[in-house]
Every structure is written in structure tokens, then in C-alpha cells.
């Protein structure tokens, strides 16, 4: 009898079998990944492949909407899609066992293709987790579908044959327990592989700089509640990258290769090599090209590192202005990311460095341990390669780096920007004196003036805090005599070349947002 209830319970049974098989597939894949290649778990590689293919506009939307949770949202989305598909395959498998189960290998192939398409793909180990996981899921689904078919074969859908029902439940229960242990074991193995890296970071002692940063001058910090601290603590420093699994690199086995066009003496450096060299320490404000006007993707830290131009000069590299053959330096990370910087900028005397320290400690893993690149004045995506392992000298004509292939500009100096940190949008301050304060930046040029405008009034000069260096942001404040009602506060900065921050609003794509930051408040 195909009563509605029996169809319903058959469907539920099939969906449960599919979900269990899907869960098992992922858990087994996790185990295989843990054994052979942690970065090749199916959700990680599919997520990575999605990120690689995300158009600039969608990426910006994701960053805008989900902020730094964008990666979690992506992975949850993938899991939900997989769950729905697995449940569907389970329902299908009750009727057409092989058709339903063969869906799994199909998705295994999708996972394997995604893995191979990742820039850091290395071969067989990359496809293994998806393929083995899918095979496990398919086999389990065949079994379960057989059992479930027998269970739901009863006349009224309640299952006439007690043994089969018990058999199904036992098998399903064993599946849950087995898959969960496999998944946990995989996670454990992945964690163990990074223990060497964690230990190498814990035991790393950073040498003192040969050229210390001058102390931050008195008066650099504005005293106003709600203003961004002048130095961004590491834990609060924004993070922008494509890595779903943060690379854990062992400092002991880390190498950096410098080679390519115009490199007369190609070399490979160990971390010890770098630490034995003179180290510079500098305050530098790093900015992301995806930062909207008023956005949070900017931070200032005290970095310790090796001067990059010295290293390049030793390898025989000359900037184009001195007859060098390469105009682009392509930095490559252990996860296959590529970032291209102008050789001229890197060698023009600014403090471009291979950084090993951030605010007095080794780089955090999130920020590129053991070594990252940093070029004052350039947006992160054209300069700040984290987990760097290779520097290739080439030309802009010959090679487009990762983001350039995705519609972002080849060259991207940081635009002059200013931001109101306090009051916050839609704040309700009391009438009287209200401190308006924030930060402004124009790395390499420096900030010479910040002005605030209330509604459509005249531009008023804000008080500038003391400038640390031209490579750092500068704090400012303005004492506003606030009158009751709704008001719009707007800020603009002028850099040391005399250029006033443009009012013209542009989007972040292709070379960074421009326009003025405004905040609406209601004075009570
Ligand atoms: N390996 C790697 N390096 C990278 C990126 C990345 O995705 N992968 N993102 C870049 C971008 S877009 C920026 S803005 C900076 C951000 O550095 P942070 O996360 O330490 O703030 O890192 C850069 N370096
Ligand atoms: Mo960025």
C-alpha cells in the first residue's frame, strides 16, 4: 500500500541513509586528509576553488556582508548544499540503489577536480581525500539502502520485519560512531602535523634590531574614547587572505628562494640566514584594497625584518631605473598565492622588508609566520605576501599575479583616506562639546591636514596628533559644538604632496575605494 504515510517514512529513511553516508564520506575524507594532506579535505578544496572563482564584486559583497566570518559562512554553505544532495541521493537510492550510490563518486570527482585546480595542488595526495571519502560514502549508502528497502517493505511502512529494522538501526549507529571517530582522528592527525610549526614558533627568539624604530613620539595618540589605538594589537589586526586552513609552516624547514629575470646570483635562504642579517624595525600601516570608505581593513604595527632591497641587491637585482631587466617582483606563498610588486618601489629606499616580527613577537600564523613581505605604501594584495617561500623577478608583461587575473589593478599604491572612529554612526551624543576623532593615512606621503564638515557647513581644521612616520596613519580630533537634531559629519584629509582626498566615490575594484567618510548622528 503506497499510503502517504509510508511514502513519507520511506523518504525519511532514505534521507537519513543519505545523510549518514554523506557524513561518513566527509569523515573518511577528513581522515585521509589528516594522514596525507591536511589542506586537501573536500570542504577546504571546494571552498578554495569557489574563492578562486569568485568574481571581485562577489568577493567584495561577501567581505562587506560577512566581514571576517566570510570563510565560515562559505564552509557552512558548502556543508548545507552537500547535506541536501546527500539526502536526495539517499531517497533516490531506496528505489534505484546504484543510481543513488553512484552520485557519491560523481561528487568525489568534483572534489578531486577542485583539489587539482588549487594553486598549491601537488598531485595524487590532493585527490585522495575526496575520492576515498566518496567511495566510502557510496559503499555505505548501498548497504543502508538495501537494509532500508527491507525495513520499509512492510505493508504499512512501519516495518513488518523487526530484525531488518534492528539491523538497519545497528548499522546506522555503527556508521555514526565509526564516521565520527574517523573524522576526529583525521582532525587529530592534522593538528599533530602542525605541532612542529607551533613548537618552532614558540621557541623562536627574535634578535634585537640593528636599526630600531624610533620611539613613537609623544602626542601621537589622541585621547578620545572610541578612537582606534595607534598600534593595533596582533589579536585585533585585520586578516584578509584566501586560506581556509591557515598554513602552519615549520620555521626549521622553511626556505626562501630568490630567482628569475636579471638575478645573477639566485639564492635560497633559511630563517637562520635571515635572522643573522641586520634587522630593521619600523612602524608601518598596512591597508587592504578591499577596505571600503570608513572600513576596518587597515592596521598599524611595529614590524621587524630584513631589508628586502639589500637581499635583492646581493642576488644581483637592479631596479628598472638602474637598467634592471625585471620590473615585477612576484612573491609566492606556501599555499600558492601570488602577489606582484613593482621592483622600482621595493628598491627605491623605502623600508620594504621580509618581516619576521610583529609588535614584539614572531609573526602570528594568521599573519604569515615565519616570514611575510611588507612594502610601505602599497595595498596588501600587491605587496604583503604571507607565508612567503619564493620570490621571482619577472615583468608585468610576462606575468599576472592572482588578483590581477581577477580584475584587480596591476599597480596599486594606497590612496589617501580618512575615517571617523567616534562618534559611531547613529550615535546619540548630548548637545555641547562632542569630540569627533579618527585616523587618516597616506603611506609614503604622510598626512598634513584633516578637515571636518558638519552638514553642509564650511570645512574646519581638525587637530592633528603628532605624525609617527610617513608610513603610519595619523590620528586627529575635532571639538564640535553640537546642537540638537540630526547631523552629518564628514572628514577629508590632505597628504604631504598637497593633494586633497577626493570626494569622488569609487568602488574598491580595481585599485581601492575613494571618497569621503560620513557619519550621521542625532544630538539630543
Ligand atoms: N599568502 C597570502 N598572502 C596574502 C594574502 C593571501 O590571500 N595569501 N592576502 C593579501 C592581502 S589582500 C592583504 S590586505 C594582506 C593582509 O594581511 P593581514 O591578514 O596580515 O592583515 O595580506 C596579503 N597577503
Ligand atoms: Mo587586501
UniProtKB/TrEMBL annotation:
<dbReference type="InterPro" id="IPR036374">
    <property type="entry name" value="OxRdtase_Mopterin-bd_sf"/>
</dbReference>
<protein>
    <submittedName>
        <fullName>Molybdopterin-dependent oxidoreductase</fullName>
    </submittedName>
</protein>
<feature type="domain" description="Oxidoreductase molybdopterin-binding">
    <location>
        <begin position="245"/>
        <end position="403"/>
    </location>
</feature>
<dbReference type="Pfam" id="PF00174">
    <property type="entry name" value="Oxidored_molyb"/>
</dbReference>
<feature type="transmembrane region" description="Helical">
    <location>
        <begin position="98"/>
        <end position="116"/>
    </location>
</feature>
<dbReference type="InterPro" id="IPR014756">
    <property type="entry name" value="Ig_E-set"/>
</dbReference>
<dbReference type="InterPro" id="IPR000572">
    <property type="entry name" value="OxRdtase_Mopterin-bd_dom"/>
</dbReference>
<keyword id="KW-1133">Transmembrane helix</keyword>
<feature type="transmembrane region" description="Helical">
    <location>
        <begin position="128"/>
        <end position="146"/>
    </location>
</feature>
<feature type="transmembrane region" description="Helical">
    <location>
        <begin position="167"/>
        <end position="189"/>
    </location>
</feature>
<keyword id="KW-0812">Transmembrane</keyword>
<feature type="transmembrane region" description="Helical">
    <location>
        <begin position="73"/>
        <end position="91"/>
    </location>
</feature>
<keyword id="KW-0472">Membrane</keyword>
Amino acid at each position: 500500500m503506497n499510503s502517504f504515510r509510508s511514502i513519507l517514512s520511506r523518504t525519511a529513511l532514505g534521507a537519513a541513509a543519505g545523510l549518514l553516508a554523506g557524513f561518513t564520506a566527509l569523515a573518511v575524507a577528513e581522515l585521509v586528509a589528516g594522514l596525507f594532506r591536511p589542506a586537501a579535505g573536500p570542504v577546504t578544496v571546494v571552498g578554495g576553488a569557489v574563492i578562486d572563482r569568485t568574481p571581485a564584486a562577489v568577493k567584495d559583497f561577501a567581505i562587506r556582508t560577512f566581514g571576517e566570518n566570510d570563510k565560515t559562512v562559505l564552509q557552512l554553505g558548502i556543508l548545507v548544499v552537500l547535506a541536501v544532495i546527500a539526502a536526495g541521493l539517499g531517497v533516490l537510492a531506496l528505489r534505484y540503489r546504484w543510481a543513488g550510490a553512484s552520485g557519491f563518486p560523481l561528487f568525489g570527482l568534483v572534489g578531486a577536480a577542485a583539489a587539482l585546480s588549487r594553486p598549491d595542488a601537488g598531485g595524487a595526495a590532493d585527490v585522495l581525500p575526496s575520492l576515498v571519502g566518496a567511495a566510502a560514502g557510496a559503499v555505505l549508502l548501498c548497504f543502508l539502502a538495501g537494509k532500508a528497502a527491507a525495513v520499509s517493505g512492510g505493508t504499512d511502512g512501519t516495518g513488518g520485519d523487526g530484525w531488518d529494522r534492528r539491523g538497519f538501526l545497528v548499522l546506522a549507529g555503527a556508521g555514526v560512531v565509526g564516521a565520527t571517530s574517523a573524522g576526529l582522528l583525521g582532525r587529530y592527525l592534522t593538528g599533530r602535523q602542525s605541532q612542529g610549526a607551533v613548537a618552532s614558533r614558540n621557541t623562536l627568539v627574535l634578535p634585537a634590531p640593528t636599526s630600531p624604530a624610533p620611539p613613537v613620539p609623544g602626542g601621537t595618540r589622541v585621547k578620545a574614547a572610541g578612537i582606534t589605538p595607534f598600534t593595533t594589537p596582533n589579536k585585533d589586526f585585520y586578516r584578509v587572505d584566501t586560506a581556509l586552513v591557515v598554513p602552519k609552516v615549520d620555521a626549521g624547514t622553511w626556505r626562501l628562494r630568490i630567482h628569475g629575470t636579471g638575478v645573477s646570483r639566485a639564492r635560497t635562504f633559511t630563517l637562520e640566514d635571515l635572522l643573522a642579517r641586520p634587522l630593521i624595525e619600523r612602524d608601518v600601516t598596512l591597508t587592504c584594497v578591499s577596505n571600503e570608505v570608513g572600513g576596518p581593513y587597515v592596521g598599524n604595527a611595529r614590524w621587524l625584518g630584513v631589508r628586502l632591497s639589500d637581499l635583492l641587491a646581493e642576488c644581483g637585482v637592479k631596479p628598472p631605473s638602474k637598467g634592471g631587466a625585471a620590473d615585477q617582483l612576484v612573491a609566492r606563498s606556501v599555499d600558492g598565492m601570488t602577489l606582484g610588486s613593482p621592483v622600482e618601489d621595493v628598491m627605491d629606499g623605502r623600508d620594504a622588508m621580509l618581516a619576521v616580527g610583529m609588535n614584539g613577537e614572531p609573526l602570528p600564523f594568521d599573519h604569515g609566520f615565519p616570514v611575510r613581505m611588507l612594502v610601505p605604501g602599497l595595498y596588501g594584495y600587491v605587496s604583503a605576501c604571507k607565508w612567503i617561500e619564493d620570490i621571482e623577478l619577472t615583468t608585468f608583461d610576462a606575468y599576472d599575479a592572482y588578483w590581477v587575473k581577477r580584475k584587480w589593478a596591476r599597480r596599486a599604491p594606497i590612496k589617501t583616506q580618512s575615517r571617523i572612529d567616534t562618534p559611531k554612526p547613529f550615535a546619540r551624543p548630548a548637545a555641547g562639546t562632542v569630540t569627533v576623532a579618527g585616523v587618516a593615512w597616506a603611506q609614503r606621503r604622510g598626512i598634513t591636514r584633516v578637515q571636518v564638515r558638519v552638514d553642509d557647513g564650511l570645512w574646519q581644521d581638525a587637530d592633528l596628533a603628532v605624525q609617527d612616520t610617513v608610513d603610519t596613519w595619523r590620528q586627529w580630533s575635532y571639538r564640535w559644538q553640537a546642537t540638537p537634531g540630526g547631523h552629518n559629519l564628514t572628514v577629508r584629509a590632505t597628504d604631504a604632496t598637497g593633494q586633497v582626498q577626493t570626494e569622488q566615490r569609487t568602488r574598491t575594484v580595481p585599485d581601492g575605494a575613494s571618497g569621503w567618510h560620513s557619519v550621521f548622528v542625532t544630538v539630543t
